[in-house]
Structures are given as C-alpha cells and as structure tokens.
Design a protein that fits this description.
single chain, mainly beta, ten-stranded antiparallel sheet, 2 helices, globular
Amino acid sequence: MSTHDHTGASDACGWGSIGVSPVKLRHIYAGIETLEEYVCCGEAYPDCESEDWTLAREFLWGERFPEPLAMIDFTDAGDVPAVGTTGGGAETLHFVHDALGSVIGLLDAGDPEATPTPIPPKMVERYEYDPYGRTYVEAWDAGTSEWVRLSPQGEATAAGSRFGNPFAWTGQRYDAGVGMYYFLFRSYSPELGRWMQRDPIAYVDGLNLHEYVRSAPTTAVDPTGNQSRRDWFADRPTRPAQHAPATPASQPNSRVGVIDWGGIDPGTLPGGTTAEEAWRKVRESKSKGNCYRYACNDPLSDDEIKDGGLDE
C-alpha cells in the first residue's frame, strides 16, 4: 500500500478531470502493479481517518509492465454516476494501446444485452502525444460530431482524463495537475523531455543520467525508469544500436568497445586509443554545445571518470 498527495479534480472529491482539487490516494499493489485505488478528499482532507477512504478504481493488467488493460471506475467521473447514487454504478473501461504501450483511447463496455439491438463498445476518450510524451486529451463532441481537445482546468498544467484515467504515455501514471509522469523509480517531465532525477543505476544506460531512452523516444521505452528497452513487445532481447562491436585485437588495452559511442564511428579513432581518451571523445561529441532535442549530456568530471573505472 502507498499513500501520497495528488492534484485532483474540479469538483469536491477529485472526480472528473484530474487537475485542481487536492486529494490523497492510496494504492493496493500486487507486486508493482496497482490493483485498487482509494481516495480521501473534501472535508476529510488532509487528516484522513480509516472511514474517510473510498474505493475509486480497480485495474486489470496484462503480462508486461506497464500494460493496463481495463479500469473499473466507481466515481462520478465519466458517463455513469458514482456507486451509491441514483442511477449510479461501476463503469468498466478498456485501454487501447499503440506500439510503445501508450494509451491512445478508452473504450466503454457497450451493452451486449440491450434490446432489440445490442450496443457495441465505443471510444469515449482519446489521447495524443508528442515524441517526448507531452499529453493531449480529446473528448467526443456530439454537437459537432468531432473530437475536441480538452483544455486544462483551473491551475492545472495540462488537461486530464474526464474518466479519471491515470495511465497514458507508455502506460505510465500521469498527473495532469503538474504535467508529470511517475515511473517506478523516478519522475519524468514531458515538457522538458528529461528525467527529474539522476539514473539510480548510474551510467548503465548512457552518459547522461537525465536523458530519456538515449533520445530515442519513438523507438524505445523505459518501463521502470532506470533503463531503456527496445524490445517491449518482443520476446527476444536486442542489443542497443549505440553499442560498438568488440574491440579489435590491435587495441588490447582499450575498453572503448563497451561504451555508448554517441554516434562516433570507432574506426575513426587512432590505433592504441586508451579508454579515457575514447571516453573524453564521446563527452566532446555530446557536450552542452551539441544537445539532443530536449536533453543535453551532463559534463563528467575527472573524478567521475575515475569512479567509473575508466582510468584503469
């Protein structure tokens, strides 16, 4: 179980579009997947007692993480009133994903028992993203028969789901109130296109500790927030293309064959190049004067190079 403050919605208890009123959420986990979400808000916030917590949502997950498949909503969000109110009940919604695992739409359950004609499921909300995850929510306007992009509510940074859906880009949890994504190990800003904390496993995923998936957001994902992957939907591991082949035998003392080259052709380096010289070459090519779209590589000091064992 986890408890944290969260920027809620425009109504008294955080139902509807996420982004305005403060609420507290509690999550019940199975491993690292959220099964149930409870909310405390309104007059009880922030001193929430045991009787102040209300079941808001339940989630069903797929085989991979994160892969939300369905959400059961018990609140006033969406098209069905809250459980316990007149005409209220649980609303089941299904997630539609793209190749990166991003949620691109919500489907309702329809009504297969309706007579004389069963009602098929329909898309009730859509999501669009820029390459680095800036998120846009769209709702169907029956008056104009068009999808309309929602605007932020109150002081929210971005528009949130009117169905209370917390999962969006690459299947991660989104807080529209502050415009941030919360991964398992750290938080991410789609506005900046970078992590807000250093990589907890250091330089395993490249030199820049704040760079998102080595500046390849359209072909790679980071399910937990500590290492990029290009094989999220594949059953076989793939070696990142940035890694160079094994070091030639003519350079027995060089370790340049196992570092992130950042686009440098190892064949252009002079024979006998040491590991430290090669590392500095990479730093020069990815310095602050040569940034990627949003992320610039952090400069490394001589001490950091030594800590990484590259002076051996």
